Amino acid sequence: MKPIPRISTRGYYDLKTGKTLKKNDYYLYPKKDFQKLIGLKEFTIMIHGLRNDSTGAVAKVLLARNRLRRLGYFFPVIGFSYDSNTTGAHLIKYAKHALSVGQNIAKKNGHNLGQFIEDFKESSPKTKIRLMGHSLGSQVILSTVEYLAKKKQNFGVVESVYFFGASIKDDVPSSKKYGKLLQNIVNKKIINYYAPTDEVLMWANKEKHVLGPLGLDGAIGKPVSKYHQKLVKPKNHRFASYVATLNTFP
User: Fold this and answer.
1) pLDDT tens-digit map of 148-171
2) Number of folded domains in the chain?
3) Among 28, 71, 169, 227, which is most exposed with the fewest C-beta within 10 angstroms?
C-alpha cells in the first residue's frame, strides 16, 4: 500500500509536559507526494484528535478519504500528524492532565500547520486547501487560523473548515476575537457537526475539562455568517462514527 502523505510534527513536543523540543516547522512524508499537489485545484487536510499515535493519524486520513470518495470527492486527502498521544490520556486519574497537555500541544501546532499553509500557497497560490478536524483537531485548526490571521495577505487562504465532535468552546464562532478571525481566514464556510449524544464531550463538560464544547450542543450567541452547523447522531465520539454521518462534501 502506498504511504499516506502527511505533514508531521511528531517528536516536536514533550508528551508528558507539552514542552517544545524542536523548533522546526514540520516535515513532509513522503516528500515527493507534496510536489504532486502543486498546481492542483484543491486538497483536504485531516487533523486527528487526542490519543492518536502516527498509526492512528494515518487511519483517520484513510477514513476521511474513503468517505469523501464515496461522496464523489476525488481530490487528495492528506494528514496532519502531531503529538496528541499524551502520557496517561487513557487513564481516568491522569485524564485531565493529559488533556491539558494535549490542548497545549494542539495550540502550539497552529504555528506549524499555519506555516505549511503559507509555504504551500507560495508555491501554488490557486490551490484550495480545506481543513477537517476531529475533537482536539478543532483546536489545531483554531490556532492555525489565529496564526494565519497575523498577516492580511492570508485572508481567505483556507477554503473551508469542517469540525467533528469539536472540543473548542461553544462561544468561539460568535466571539469578537475568534469569530472575526474565522470569518477573515476561511474563504467559503465553516461547518460544525455537533452531537448532544457525544459521550466523551458530555463527560468532558461534566468534569469541567472542557467547558461547553462546540461539538456537544453547537454554538451559542450569534455566530459569524460563514459558520453553519449540523446536528448529527454518531454512534460514539470516534471519528469513524462522525465521518459516517457526512452526506455531502465539500
Assistant:
1) 999 999 999 999 999 999 999 999
2) 1
3) 71
